[in-house]
Amino acid sequence: MAESTQMDVETATGGTVPLPPKPTFKPLKAHEMSDGKVQFRKISVPPNRYSPLKKAWLDIYTPIYDQMKVDIRMNLKARKVELKTRADTPDISNLQKSADFVHAFMLGFDIPDAISLLRMDELYVESFEIKDVKTLKGEHLSRAIGRLSGKGGKTKFAIENSTKTRIVIADTRIHILGAFSNIKVARGSLCSLIMGSPAGKVYSKLRSVSARLNE
């Protein structure tokens, strides 16, 4: 068995067969990447975000149309924001980034925070519900939501600043915007609060974890 292995190695490496040259591919344009077809995305507008969307429309429209080179319009009948690629869209991923940006705004994130999704690749939004962590009802649920925010939003701000994330608490649903490792830490802190841990204990754990993250 050992002899056949040796022969195989000698046969494979003994010859001087020249390797073929590496192929060179030109960068693909957006219309080539999508087989020349126009790509679409649609984002539903929740009833509570309709008025904020009208007020912030120019702030949303300008970076998507000018910087990302993606067409955007508001379909009033269907109550959806519609996006599509153009002939001069530099990269097909711009369409998905624009859709993520609009979706983040619909979830309740501020424009300056949501716009980071257009500029950085490693950011994303993670959502979960309080009932995914612990089944709570009535006053227990209200107290859990209160613990997440803290007095005057102090606890939420502390988690955001320590983990470099942004958090939106919409009733029983929680949305976190940030990098993967930071979202993991922020979610762990929020889950501890939902399970009933005191804020002081969560703060001390956050300090040690955020120090490790900075390293």
From TrEMBL:
Pfam families documented for this protein: KH_PNO1_2nd (PF22891)
Subcellular localization: Nucleus, Nucleolus
Segments forming domain K Homology: 122-195
Gene3D superfamilies: K Homology domain, type 1
Region (Disordered): 1-22
Source organism superkingdom: Eukaryota
GO MF entry, a single one: RNA binding
The keyword RNA-binding is annotated on this UniProt entry: yes
GO CC annotation terms, alphabetical: nucleolus
Keywords assigned: Nucleus, RNA-binding
Family assignment from sequence similarity: Belongs to the PNO1 family.
PANTHER family registered for this protein in UniProt: RIBONUCLEASE Y, RNA-BINDING PROTEIN PNO1
Protein's UniProt name: K Homology domain-containing protein
Biological source species: Arabidopsis arenosa (Sand rock-cress)
Record lineage: Eukaryota, Viridiplantae, Streptophyta, Embryophyta, Tracheophyta
